[in-house]
Specification:
Radius of gyration: 21 Å
CATH class of the largest domain: Alpha Beta
Largest sheet: 7 strands, mixed
CATH superfamily of the largest domain: Type I PLP-dependent aspartate aminotransferase-like (Major domain)
Structural class: alpha/beta
Number of helices: 14
CATH architecture of the largest domain: 3-Layer(aba) Sandwich
Strand order of the largest sheet: 2-8-7-6-5-3-4
Distance between the termini: 32 Å
CATH topology of the largest domain: Aspartate Aminotransferase, domain 2
């Protein structure tokens, strides 16, 4: 199997899976209880908060554990809007956000907020942000094309415009892969998800800057200061902490080599268009097979046990036509022929060659949809 959809999820470390299984049997008590076995379960919560804080350069008490990136993003955007609605009514979201942020815009519009979607440039945010802006959201690394947004510049714009804005950064595709110092980024919140770095699914976190308030979006418990109520998944927390520890030891330099090798071979395929910027991260590449339907190529590759995607795994088929490429104004052939190839730390040059060999045969194997 050639797995090249690591932006959707990664295969957990064997050590992580083993640790979670052990903790489910050994420390299964509810971490919120007061007896000794509960304290042992709570150790996983403490471990992962310290591990995350060390990467983000913040304090452990600024970390809220959540069920994953989607919950973290929802909490930050919706929670901040409700907490600051007396200060203004404008919400500025980048137009390339993950669905868990982008869809918050529609929810907030229904609640009467003025929602603006800005192009992923400092100039666009400069124009969109005003003194009534109470939430700004921009992802650090885009999940579909791998571009890096100008986070520090956006933070300076917010300050210069004197906007009372909560600045949220979706860091799901960036955490442990590129520098994520929240003090440098000047953000109020930052979301992460364990399963993007060979950790377990169903657990993530939100950095919430000390002194910054968001209104909780669920109720029913006192966990995480009452902001994220519900029973802790302590076995997953142990696994999350272990994944961070192991991932930080990985050499990510070979991802640049994989990208370079892919691009060199892609030059020989006239129907392949590269949609990702050279300045983007090396582990996410978006291409379009011009003249072909991306979904047809995806299934053709699947028959050969080569796995890629068409974009965000959280988007429905209907939403493909409203993908990041479409929002960026790319033409129909580019949008409908798009594929996302995302490398992982286990990806090899031989796997890239297997993909490229398969793509070379596309003109003989796949019927053209566009001429």
């Amino acid at each position: 199997m050639v797995y090249l959809d690591n932006s959707a999820t990664t295969k957990p470390y064997a050590e992580v899976s083993a640790l979670i299984a052990e903790q489910e049997q050994k420390n299964f008590a509810n971490a919120s209880a007061l007896y000794r076995s509960a304290v042992a379960a709570e150790e996983g919560i403490l471990q992962v908060k310290y591990a995350i804080a060390s990467v983000l350069h913040c304090t452990p008490d600024e970390i809220l554990l959540t069920s994953g990136g989607t919950y973290s993003n929802n909490l930050a955007v919706l929670g901040a809007a409700e907490a600051r609605k007396r200060m203004g009514n404008r919400i500025v979201l980048s137009m390339v956000e993950h669905p868990s942020v982008y869809a918050c815009g529609a929810v907030l519009q229904e609640r009467g907020f003025d929602v603006v979607y800005a192009a992923p440039t400092a100039e666009a945010f400069e124009e969109a942000i005003n003194e009534k802006t109470i939430v700004v959201a921009a992802m650090l690394v885009n999940n579909e094309v791998g571009s890096i947004l100008p986070i520090a510049q956006i933070a300076r714009i917010i300050k210069r415009k004197k906007a009372p804005a909560h600045f949220h950064v979706d860091g799901v595709q960036a955490f442990c892969k590129i520098p994520c110092n929240v003090s440098t980024l000047k953000c109020d919140s930052f979301s992460i998800s364990a399963h993007k770095l060979k950790g377990p699914k169903g657990i993530g976190a939100l950095y919430l800057k000390k002194g910054v308030r968001v209104k909780n979006i669920t109720v029913g418990g006192e966990q995480e200061k009452g902001i994220v109520p519900g029973t802790y998944n302590s076995p997953a927390a142990f696994g999350f902490a272990k994944a961070i520890q192991l991932y930080q030891k990985e050499d990510l330099g070979h991802l640049e080599q994989l990208r370079a090798h892919f691009l060199e071979r892609a030059k020989k395929l006239p129907f392949v268009q590269i949609n990702s910027s050279p300045e983007g991260v090396p582990y996410i590449l978006n291409i379009s097979c011009i003249g072909y339907l991306g979904e047809n190529i995806l299934h053709y590759l699947e028959e050969q046990e080569i796995y890629v995607s068409q974009g965000s795994a959280c988007s429905s088929k209907k939403a493909r036509s409203q993908s990041v490429l479409a929002r960026l104004g790319m033409n129909e052939q580019s949008v409908m022929g798009a594929l996302r190839i995302s490398f992982g730390i286990d990806t090899t040059v031989e796997e890239i060659d297997a993909l490229m060999d398969a793509l070379e045969a596309v003109p003989q194997k796949i019927q053209k949809m566009y001429r």
